[in-house]
């Protein structure tokens, strides 16, 4: 089972289902139906396993489309999400296609 890591405990993780934006993986991209272990701080000694979730939908796109979608993902608006992405991944990477994943908790 692969790990889907988060570096922040977003409020959205308390919902029955939630979305997250992830860059396509070069080795094996995320797939609908895949069951993943959701982990807070996955590369830390203080990692926290939040639970098991299933990817229920996947949509490839360039970032979020509007403020409502960014707010659903935990940001103030689309610009706030864009600033966070640049800070986290760098300017060049933000032009790459991303996957909008929707997950549903299994437990």
Total domain count: 1
- As a percent range, the share of strand residues is 35-45%
Low-confidence stretches: none
What profile does the largest beta sheet have? 5 strands, mixed
- CATH hierarchy class name: Mainly Beta
Quantity of strands, as a count: 5
Question: Any overview of this molecule?
Answer:
This protein is α+β, with helices and mostly antiparallel strands. The protein has a single domain (2-105), classed as Archaeosine Trna-guanine Transglycosylase, Chain: A, domain 4 (Roll). 17% of the residues lie in helices and 37% in strands. The protein has helices at residues 67-72, 78-89; strands at 2-6, 17-23, 35-40, 48-61, 98-105. It has a five-stranded mixed sheet, with no helix packed on it. A hairpin with a 7-residue loop joins strand 3 (35-40) and strand 4 (48-61).
Short description:
By secondary structure, the chain is of the alpha+beta class. It has two helices and five strands.
Task: List the SSEs and their pairings.
Elements lengths: L1 E5 L10 E7 L11 E6 L7 E14 L5 H6 L5 H12 L8 E8 L2
Parallel strand pairs: 1-3
Antiparallel strand pairs: 2-5, 3-4, 4-5
Write a concise keyword list for the protein shown above.
single chain, 107 residues, Archaeosine Trna-guanine Transglycosylase, Chain: A, domain 4, five-stranded mixed beta sheet, 5 strands
């Amino acid at each position: 089972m692969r790990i889907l890591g988060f570096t922040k405990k977003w409020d959205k993780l308390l919902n029955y289902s939630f979305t997250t934006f992830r860059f396509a993986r070069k080795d094996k991209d995320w797939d609908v139906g895949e069951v993943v272990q959701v982990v807070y701080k996955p590369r830390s000694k203080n990692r926290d396993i939040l639970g098991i979730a299933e990817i229920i939908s996947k949509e490839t796109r360039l970032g979020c489309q509007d403020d409502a979608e960014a707010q659903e993902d935990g940001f103030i608006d689309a610009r706030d999400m864009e600033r966070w992405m640049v800070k986290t991944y760098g300017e060049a990477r933000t032009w790459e296609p991303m996957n909008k994943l929707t997950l549903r908790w299994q437990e």
